[in-house]
Amino acid sequence: MSFGLRLAVIDADDMVREGRLLLLQSQSDLQVVFETADPRGALEILGDYLIDVILVESRIPGLTMEKYLEQLSQALDDAGSGAQVIAMANFVSMADELAWLKAGAAGVVSHELGATALLRLTRVLGAGDIAIERSRIDMLLAEVEGPAALHGALAISLKQADPSQTAVLKALLTGSSDAQIAKDLGLTKYRVGKFLDSIKLANGFRTRTQLAIELLGFGAF
Known about the structure:
By secondary structure, this protein is an alpha/beta fold. The chain is built from 11 helices and 5 strands. The chain folds into 2 domains: about 5-130, 3-Layer(aba) Sandwich (Rossmann fold); about 150-215, Winged helix-like DNA-binding domain superfamily/Winged helix DNA-binding domain (Arc Repressor Mutant, subunit A), CATH 1.10.10.10.
């Protein structure tokens, strides 16, 4: 029997976490396989579970959310997990959103957007799609950081990319899934995914969003 997407929920507030669990468990295509009130403890054991999406609340005792996301990303990499992370908070500033995305969150959601936004983001990430549009990344970069220089490793990767690989990267910035990119460019989904995984690995990125932010932030396309 298939239970759909496998989720983990990390939230130090017991009451809020229980309410979120009720929401997620009411969805027939979502299954919560791990939940905890101990964010630090989760770093040690999350790798033991097969998880598609991790929902993390910004209440992290003794740590900023940005630092925790960096540690969580490292723990997932060490465990060989491809789980995608959603960072959540009551209010999310543009600076926080960009910092959390760069630290490893594949998506960020404010509670003021409601349950529908959280469920939609969970399903989008579970399907392997990029969760943020190019226009949003452009806005975040313009408001928070401004222009910067392309770092060496990614510059080398872009220089070595063949025309089809360059087309894949440009398509990535439209928010298309691997399947849609493959269809549009006449490539196999496997080839698209393998190339994106290789360029993420070579440049220290866990998520497609991190790669997109880097490309747009430095004016690569």
